[in-house]
Amino acid sequence: MRTLDIPGIFKADAETILKCREDAIRIHGTNIRAAGDEVEICVRDYLTRMLPPRYYVSQGHLIDRVGNVSAQMDIIISDNFNLPSLQTTKDGTRYIPIDSVYAVAEIKSTYYKSKNPIAEFSDSIKDIRENLIHEEILNTAYEGLKDDTSLRDIVLEKANRVLNRIFFFAIFVDGGDFAFEDVASYYSSRDLRHLPNVVVILNKGVIIRAAFIDEKLSFNRYPEEAKQNEDWYFSPFPGVEVGSLEGNHLGFLYYMLVEHLANSHLEPPSLKGYLQKLMVGRKSLLKRANAT
């Protein structure tokens, strides 16, 4: 019986992304922005291909029901079945209702220490969490049945404590001058809610919140739900004579993302809430058909 070489598949996918970076640098040279755009498109295309049709992969801004708008995000994964985009401009930039969002990502072709990219992304996460309205949907069946457990959550059987939590991740295709020692103190001092859930540096390793138990790392997808004995770790996944370093890191990201999506649930957003400013009239302007 033939077996599927899963590590080999992720190795080939990672090589495609690496080649996108190399081709972009060859074509655009010192135009870092243009080269970065090429890499972003390549990663978005990869995620679009890998994720089921219910997920809409795009780029743009998050917007809440009162009109607050986030900074530009390289990747936004939203609910393709319920209002995946509120507005798309002529240049392809989308305004995505935050209530439709599963995940947000930052994509960089190369890690440059001087640009503090993780701190910059962390600031964007803080801005979204603190300045955009996004009410949590709690899983009332989390860790077992209780007096207030709803039938919805029993049927859903999701493992997440918060059903609509946004998953933040970053991908650096090339590690450049990255060294974990340079960011370790930042991770130790920053509010857990404002840090990426996972950072993947394809040719070097991943940064993840975890606990070291029985000589193994137990990963926590949601840093803000800090558990005992957890800390931030940087780890390469060289594998055991399978795949490749880059492919294994890409596969790990895919695993973390799919686990998040599978255990999330979004309620359909109310379009009325987003458009309520349009639907304000004046009594003096009303005309009634049967007025006497």
Please provide the count of β strands.
10
Instruction: Give the rounded overall mean pLDDT.
Output: 89
Secondary structure: helix percent: 25-40%
Give the CA-CA distance, first to last residue. 84 Å
- Low-pLDDT stretches are none
Run of helices and strands:
HHEEEEEHHEHEEEEHH
Q: Tell the overall outline.
A: globular
Give an overview of the whole structure.
It is a single chain. The protein is an alpha/beta fold. The chain has one domain. It is built from seven helices and ten strands. Strands 1, 2, 3, 4, 5, 6, 7, 8, 9 and 10 form a ten-stranded mixed beta sheet that branches. Helix 1 runs antiparallel to helix 2 and helix 1 crosses helix 6. The longest helix is centred in the first third of the chain and has 23 residues. The relative contact order is 0.15. The mean pLDDT is 89.
Please tag this protein with its features.
292 residues; alpha/beta; globular
Structure summarized in a few sentences:
This protein is α/β, with parallel strands linked by helices. It has helices at residues 6-28, 32-50, 117-131, 151-156, 180-189, 245-262, 271-275, and strands spanning 55-63, 73-79, 87-88, 94-97, 101-110, 167-174, 198-201, 205-213, 216-220, 230-235.
